[in-house]
Amino acid sequence: MSEKNFTIYKSSAGSGKTFTLVKEYLALALNDPSEPPQAYKHILAVTFTNKAAAEMKERIIKALKELSEEDYSEVSSGTKTFLLELKKHVKLNLYEKMDDAIIRKRAQNILTAILHNYSDFAIGTIDAFVHKVVRTFAFDLKIPMSFEIEMDDDKLLSQAIDLLIAQIGNDERLTKALVEFTESKTDDEKSWHIENDLKIFAKNLLNEEGAIYIEKLKHLSVDDFFEIKDILFSEIKLFETLVSNEAKKAFDLIKKAGLTNKDFYYGDKGIAAYFEKIGNGRVDYISPNSYVITTAGEDKWYAGKISEETKTSIDGIKSILLDSFSAIQELKDKSYSNYILFSLINKNIYSLAVLNEIEKILSEYKAQNNILHISEFNKMIAKIVLNEPIPFIYERLGERYNNYLIDEFQDTSVLQFQNLLPLIDNSLASGHFTMLVGDGKQAIYRWRGGEVEQFAMLPRVFKHNDNPLVLEREEALIRNHNPKMLDKNYRSKREVIEFNNSIFKILSGKLNEKYQTIYKGLEQGFNPENTGGFVQVEFIAGAKEEYRSQNKIRTLELIQQLLKEEYALKDISILVRKNTDGSDIANYLTENGIKVISSDSLLLSNSVEINFLHSLLKYLSNTSDTIIQTEILEYLLTSEIVSNTTLAETLQNRTGISAIIKNANIDFSVTKLSKMALYELCEELVRIFKLNATPNAYIQFFLDEVLNYSIKKNNNLNDFIDYWEEKKEKSSLVIPQGMDAVSIMTIHRSKGLEFPVVILPFSNSEVINGKKNLWIDLDNDKLPKLPSAIVPTNKDLLETQYAELYDEEKNKSLLDNLNVLYVGFTRAEERMYVFSGMPGKKPENLSSVSDMLAFYYQTTGEWEEGKSCYTFGEGSTHIKTNKKQETLNYELATFNSNSWRESVKMRAAAPSIWNTNMAEVKKDYGNVVHTALAKVKTAEDVLPALSSMCAEGLITDDEKELLTNTLSKIIKLPGLAPYFESNLVIKNEAEIVTSSGELYRPDRVVLIGKQANKIIL
After folding, report:
1. pTM score of the predicted model
2. What local confidence, expressed as pLDDT, does residue 123 receive?
3. What is the pLDDT at residue 653?
4. Backbone phi, then psi, for 587, in 5-degree steps?
C-alpha cells in the first residue's frame, strides 16, 4: 500500500501549529543531499497574513542558522526540539540515518542557498501566490501585462459610486432608481445620504459569493428592474387585498351582529381580534395563534361570561366566520410564501438595481484605468481550473513546486482552495508530501470568505457542485488522506486550559449538530507541572453608561493590582470586540497614567503635529479658508509658537495667518513654499516650525507616506490633500516589539498571539447575524427575468422555501460568536479576567456572551443568584523574567532634516565641452583636446582614450582621426615628451588640498624619482 501523503493537522490554540509547519518544511528541505540544495525551491508554504508568513520565514532561517552551528549545546531550546524531532522524522530518515554532522552540513548548504537565492524561498500569503500566477499568465488570461492591483475596497467603490451619482439628471431611469433608493432609506428612517449605504451594499461585488450572483444579473437593465418592481408591487398588493377583504368581511359581520372581541374565546387574543387585525391591513398576523386554532378546530367560540343571547348571536354567524377563516388559510397556504418572499425581495430591489449599475460602471472604470481588484484573481483562475483537467496556467508551476504547506486553512475561501486543488492533485500523483493545518474553532473570518465547513469536511471538497474535475481531485485527497491531531497546549498554564476545556465543551453542545463536529475532541492536554493559572469572570450590572464606566474602572484597578504583583505593562493585553471599545478604554487608561498601545493610539491622524502639517498643506492650497487658518492658529497658540494673545483676540483682529507667523520671526513664505515639490515642501514645513526638534515617529511615518505618494502617484498638492483625507484613518505607526505598554486590540487582531495576562472588558456583545443580507437563487414563474436576488436576513424567511438558508445563517452566526470567544479566551498564558454584563432571562438561548457565561455556570451548578464574581484556580506568584531581547530597538536621539538645496549645487551652464550658443550644438575643439589629454598618461594611451570618447559619443570617427594626429604631435614636443614616459607616476585632474583648506585641481601632476623629489605641475 502506498504511503498517504496528504496530511491534515487539526490543531487547537497553543498546540504548536507554526512549530509543526516549520518542522515539516525543514524535513523536506534537509532530505536533499545535493549540492547546491534544490529541494527548498520546490516547497510552497502559504498562510493567511503577511505577518504570519514573515514569522514562518524568520523561524525557518533561525532554525537553519542554529542547526548550522558547530556546538548544539548553545542553540535555543526550540532548535534543540527541532533537532530531536528531525532525527526521528520518518521521511527524513528513510534512506539514511540522520546524525548531527549530516544535519549540520545540509543546514549550512540550505541556509547559504536561501540567502543567495532568496526569491526561491517560497513562503507567503495565498493572495501573493495567486497574484504571482495571474501576473505570470496575464497574456493568457487576456488582461493587460501592466495592470495595477487595487486592494482598497472603499477607494475603488467610491470612484464607481461617484461616477454613478454623476449620471443623475442625465440618465432618466437611473435617476429615478436612485431617487427611489433614497426614498426607501428615508422610509426606513435612515439617512438620505446614500453614498455610505451604496458603498456598504456594493461590497457584495467584491466578495466571492456576491460576484457569483451578480454575474447572473448583468444582462438586466434599469428598466428591467422597474418592470420587476411593478410585478412585485402588484403581487404583494393582490395578496394583501384578498386576505384583508376576507377578514374585513368577517369582522363587519361580527360588528353587525352587535358583538365585540371580548365576546369570543380569549377576547383580544381570539378569532374576532384575528379578523380585526388582518382586516386593518396587518397581514403579518395571518398565522393564527393557539387560541384562534382552538376556536376553529375545537369549536370553542364563547368567552367565559356572556349571555345566552350573545351565544346565540355567535352561533348564527360562526359558520360564515369559519368559512372566512378557511378562505384566509387557503390563501395563506397557496400564496403566503410568495408574498413574504416578494416583500423581502422588494425591500432590496432598488439596491439590487443600483448594485447592478455600479458593477457595470466598476468594470468599465477598471478597464479604462488598467486596474484589477485583488478579489478578482481567484475568480479568473477558477474559470480555468474548474473547466480544464490540466490547467495551462499551472503547467510551469506544477513542475516548480512539489510540496504544498497550507496554514490557517479554516480561513481559506472556497475558490482559493479549489484553485489550489490541481496543484495538490499533481503533487500527490507524483508521490510528494502536502499538508494542511487549521483549527475550525478559530474560524473568525467568514465575513472575508473563510468557510469553516470546508475544513470540517476534509478530505471531501466543500461545494464541489458535482463538477467532475473537482470530484476527481477529491478522490485523490481521500486516497492520500492522513489525519493528525495536535492536541497538547504548550502556551497556557493548566488552570487556564482546564477552564477553556470545560466551558467550550458545554457551550459547543448548543451548536447545530453539523457544527458540533468542529468542537469535537476540543479538550487539550497540558504539562501537569505548569500550574498556577487563574481565571476570573465578573458580571457587572448597570445601564449602558454605568456598565461601560464600571468596566473601565475595574480594568484600571486590575492593571494597578497586576503591577504590584510584578507584572510589567507589556505583559498585559486588553481584548475587545469593537474598535470603539478599544478606543474608549485606551483613552481612559491614558488619562490615568497607563501607557497603552492600540490601533487608535497609533493612527497618524491622532498626532497633533500631523494634523498641523495637514492644515498647513490645506492653507497653501487655499489661503483664503478661515477655518483652516483657525486650525493653524490654534496649534500655534497651544504650542506657544505664538504668544501674548488668545484665539478670540486674534480672530477678532482678522490678521492673516501668514502675518502672524512672520511676526513670530518664522520664515514662512507662501510664494516660496508653493513652488516646492510635495516631499520637499513637507520636510521644509517640519524644519520651519521645528517639528524635528526631537525625534517624532509620527512625523517620520507621515513623511514616508508623502514620499511613497510622490513616487507612486504625483507631486500635486491638492491630490495629496484628497488622498490624505481618505488615508489618514488607516495609516498608523509600525512599532517595534518590546515596548513597555498595555496592548489593546480586537480579538480578531489578537489571533496567533499570546500574553501572560489577558483582560476582556465589555464582554456582553449580542449574538447577531453575521450577514445582514442573503443571496438566493430564484426560479419563480412570477419573476421570470430575475434569476437571483438579495434579501434581508429576516426570520420571515422561515415562511418561505428558504427557511433552511435562514436557519443555517443563524447557526453559523452562533458558531462565529463562539469562535471569537474561543480565540479571546485562549490568548492567556497565566491569567484571564473577563468583565461581562448581566445575562438575560433565558441564558440557555445564548443570545449574548453574558448568556453564554451564565449558562456555563448554571450547567456546572456554580451559578448563584446575586453572586457576581466567579474564579477558577489560585494564581501563582508571577516570576519576573529578564528575557534577552532578540531584537534590539534603537531609539533615535536626533531627527536629521536638511535642505538639499544647501547640500547640492546645480550648474547653471552646460558642460564646458558644449557650445550652446550655436544653433546646431558643436564641440569646441580646444575643450575636446583638453578632455582627451585628461585621459592620456603615456603615448600608449592615445588610441584607447580616443576610442573611449568615440564610444561615449563625445567625438565622431572623423574627429578621432584628426585628434590622433594632434595628440601625437603634442606629446612628442621636445619640452613635453619626457613627461609622457611610462616609468613616471602621473596624476591627471587630481585635487590638491592645502594646509589652509583651499582646493586646487591641476590638469596634470608628474612625480619624478622614487622619493618623488621632483614634482612637475
Report:
1. 0.80
2. 93
3. 60
4. -60, -40
